[in-house]
Amino acid sequence: MGLAGGSTGGRTDETGGRQGPVAPSGRAPVALRPLALGEAPITGGLWGQRQQINREVTIPLGAEKLEAVGSFENFKAAAARRRGGYHGPVYQDGEVYKWLEALAWEQARGASKQFAGWQREVTGLIRDAQADDGYLNTFIQVEAGDQERYADLAYNHEIFNNGALIQAAVAQARTGNDSGLLAVAERVATHLGATFGPGKRAGVCGHPLVEMALVELGRQTGRSEYVNLAGYFVGARGQRTLNTREFRPMYYSDRLPFREITSPEGHAVRALYLAAGATDLAVESRDSELVDVLRLQWQNMVATKMYLTGGLGSRWEGEAFGDPFELPNDRAYCETCAAVASIQWAWRLLLLTGEARYADLIERTLYNALLPGLSLDGDRFFYVNALELRSGASIEYSRSVAGGRQTWYGTSCCPTNLMRTLSSLEHYFVTRTGDGLQVHQYTPTRIRTTAAGQPVELDVATEYPWDGAVEITVRNASAVPWELALRIPAWATGARVTVNGGEPAEVPTPGEYLRLNRRWETGDVVLLNLPMAARLTRADDRIDAARGRAAIERGPLVYCLEQADHKVDLDLLCIEKGTEMTVTESASPGARIAVEASGQAISRVPDSGLYHPLDGGAPRPGDPVTLRAVPYFTWANRGVDAMRVWIPLS
Amino acid sequence: MGLAGGSTGGRTDETGGRQGPVAPSGRAPVALRPLALGEAPITGGLWGQRQQINREVTIPLGAEKLEAVGSFENFKAAAARRRGGYHGPVYQDGEVYKWLEALAWEQARGASKQFAGWQREVTGLIRDAQADDGYLNTFIQVEAGDQERYADLAYNHEIFNNGALIQAAVAQARTGNDSGLLAVAERVATHLGATFGPGKRAGVCGHPLVEMALVELGRQTGRSEYVNLAGYFVGARGQRTLNTREFRPMYYSDRLPFREITSPEGHAVRALYLAAGATDLAVESRDSELVDVLRLQWQNMVATKMYLTGGLGSRWEGEAFGDPFELPNDRAYCETCAAVASIQWAWRLLLLTGEARYADLIERTLYNALLPGLSLDGDRFFYVNALELRSGASIEYSRSVAGGRQTWYGTSCCPTNLMRTLSSLEHYFVTRTGDGLQVHQYTPTRIRTTAAGQPVELDVATEYPWDGAVEITVRNASAVPWELALRIPAWATGARVTVNGGEPAEVPTPGEYLRLNRRWETGDVVLLNLPMAARLTRADDRIDAARGRAAIERGPLVYCLEQADHKVDLDLLCIEKGTEMTVTESASPGARIAVEASGQAISRVPDSGLYHPLDGGAPRPGDPVTLRAVPYFTWANRGVDAMRVWIPLS
């Protein structure tokens, strides 16, 4: 297996621009191409604000917390060849790398002396820490000792850490401000390649991640051996060698060979990182059978194991996917990192296929599974994103959301993953082809790129997701016609599009792209109007926790009830099946739009016990109550109290 | 705090009979008194058969498995003062003691050379293993070293093991065939008392159990210091000193002082053993405030945290109680040991108060939470008792029931707990007072005791729980009137009672005792007829997994659907709300009576995804299907496939 389409030869794509994250090689058989770095910055709106807070609050908080844990000290100790006194869990290096990746993308968004200084300094520490033979993992070097290298592949996260290092290095290289990390990463990858593979050591890491990192490194450097090594690591799984007292092979994505898995299983983040890496591999190795496997896995995931929010993972135990339709609200795991990983996977499938459903899931996941992981102020984090919190729920369990967002975690993967995702977010919103441009996500954006062989300049103005109007203004005349494709979200029945205020264009079935092919003039205005009426959603009846319930959605946002907006205990509230819903301005922080609906307070016979004859003593709807729903991603920003996404139907 | 009512002074109760498990002291303020050993043997029926299989299959299997693990070797190593080579988890000694307790009760039920030999031999090993100062825990003695004594109270289960030892010793003593274990137990208890308590070492065990053991030892020996030590161990909890990386204080019943806990929480078996021990303590110390706490805890448990089966514990993680109303069917924990512990607690509350609801729960738990833990052949065990298994559920998780009952477990608490419970089961069925006799559970029984100051002889004949007729024949004339109290189960609306075929007696509200007070003649026949029509049950709507569903019950048995009885995938079946139900003979193993009901096969739109507009595409009931339900306790005895207790309503 080689870098099938050859490589782009380094830092630029075929248009000459620098690349962002996920850059398929020039001849890779992808339907869509990412824009080059800086070609479509987010210029405002909800995501612009989130990026700003990420830059100003979250990333500096990361520096402070990583320092406090002793993460940098680990590298210094390794550089000094000291032994003992390692800080943090075995994957602590990986947290540094993810934060470093965020620094790189941020500097592409705007110069920062502070970020440049941090990057230079920490990259230096890493370079100094690397062993002479290219090996690099401070836990082994400082604490366990070199004799423990790869001795505990299930637990020690060595190759996982290496993967995160490679990702940060690729980011430094692509953003044109490599502080020397790419050379470190190449030495690490070379060391891995010399260690693992056919005729060498057999084995895979307990935590996938390196697969996509290696393919990206191959794309970046043009060296196919890195892609081959990724191919080895994907292909070698399923031997059930990862099997510990605590977790069985399924947890480690090691129950079956990857190509025999029909639905993601086990630890959610592991399974999703692996799937994303396998997608990169399938693209670069033109492996259509592997593509079929990936599409089947993804389809079964969304058809049986996905929360309404796009959240993934329904078990606290093993942070894992449950069985099909096992999607409890209260015990939902929906790790923030699983949202990141799901976006990474869906983005790769979108580039590969050009199918809108992958962009649909990215949107659902961004607003409702990733964003809830971060406080509005950017300084607190949810690791777990449950869809329901009962009043009186115990705060004592570490996985419970009852304690609210935390300022940091001993395992800080979610905060650092959020940082790097927000720093590179614009790269997931717009693509191009030889025919034109595709806008997948709607947010204020300034697009200056090349499509269909000519410069294309567009400005996107919108208040989305609060308002459904998206105005796209063409800023340059085109020499030849090109196609502007706009995603009509699957929920957007009744979307309308006009060009220059003319007759409405024909809109396809929601969940497809509307395609406008013309010779554009400077000042042309495309107006997309997405229907923003609140809507009630039901779930497959096999999902216990949602049966007999409805959820409120509006646009791409899943809404929820919070106790703060209701005098009656949330446990007593139900919603009228035929309720009208009113969209109102919201005073709740971060939520510009609230939704009001008609409900009732349930009247129960007190102290009557849990179980009754079927025909007796059922609770009765009582006094009418106005339900007030706020976007789920904003919950728990006014203190933490009862919350629910799925509301019992009266 | 002392042995408030004084002690019975040893092995006999005030009637001169030997005592069984749980023997309140003579002056303890209990409403009911247990019968003496051997006064009411079970003579047949379902429980008679289970006792026979326990004796012939399960207990010998225990000997074999405990030997194979190396449990006895541990004692030999400790006796030889060898170091290293310990076998099994830290609580392995405890498994031996529970099995030894079963041996003792079995020998009271009928002499057995084999059991006597095992008991003598293993008791000898234990005696030899005890350290000179009375300390006894082979993990510490053989593996960790004496410097580790009580160094890890949260994890090492030392005092827990000691508690099980004491329970076995009390059983040996009460059954009159002490092989020397009581002396060992007294030395252990004395060592504990010298180590822990006011002015000595502070601390409690991570796993409660010793509390009830110490009170029983106090009752057995008449030594109040053991009861005082139990008082210390109950009172010292709640300091949050048990707090580990893996589990917080709640897990260890150490979040709050016991008297401040209003609902059992954390690890279910820990919480329930503690509550049972605290009840013993409250009885012997005449502590009415503690009694109020216990009643409140129990009431909140059954009102918010109990499965229909009586099963307790709804979280895999921490084997724990969930939040109120958090009772998933698929992820139910319902550890078999939690059923044992719940029966132990309810029995103590029943003796204390004489209230039928505690006997009701014992019945529900015995048939539907304890019995499912054991295969019909007596040689396989469920640790976890889920109320639903989906087709296609992963077998890979150790806590999943998808793998069926196992022949043994690395943590074998459930098998040994089942053994000792079944060996002593008859002691939980009948009580006496100064006024008469109370029959709490209906099974063929031969009662020969003393009540109201005179000999009382009754024979109970019944096919219960398959049939509702219970015939009680009086075998001796009484000198003065006495009261026969019969529990009318809470579900038994329409129960009828006649004496000698006369006019039906007035039957109280179900969930109370029917009381017949008369001067009985030899040959008097009391006929109790409990209504055995199948019935549909609904759950509180706050229980997600049961909302919109019904369960089938008949008599004390919870029924379930098994895939083996249905051609249509269980996931597609629903039950008609107004269905008639037919009781039929069953060919399914262990299930004499099946229940048939009218249902339908749900028709779903294939591949339509999990989430839909509320008013669109809901599944529709399709072809009529006859549902065939079997008793839940018999499930998974015909292979393991989909099963559900709660059936969607059409």
TrEMBL record, chains A, B:
Q: What are the Non-reducing end beta-L-arabinofuranosidase-like GH127 middle domain coordinates in residue numbering? A: 437-532
Q: Which terms are listed as keywords in the entry?
A: Hydrolase
Chain residue ranges for the region called Disordered = 1-28
Give the SUPFAM superfamilies listed for this entry: Six-hairpin glycosidases
Output the InterPro entries linked to this UniProt entry. 6-hairpin_glycosidase_sf, Beta-AFase-like, Beta-AFase-like_GH127_C, Beta-AFase-like_GH127_cat, Beta-AFase-like_GH127_middle
What is a single molecular function from GO for this protein? Answer: hydrolase activity
Entry annotated with the keyword Nuclease: no
Keyword Hydrolase found: yes
Q: Where is the Non-reducing end beta-L-arabinofuranosidase-like GH127 C-terminal domain?
A: 535-648
Name any one Pfam family assigned in the record.
Answer: Glyco_hydro127C
Name of the protein in question:
Glycoside hydrolase family 127 protein
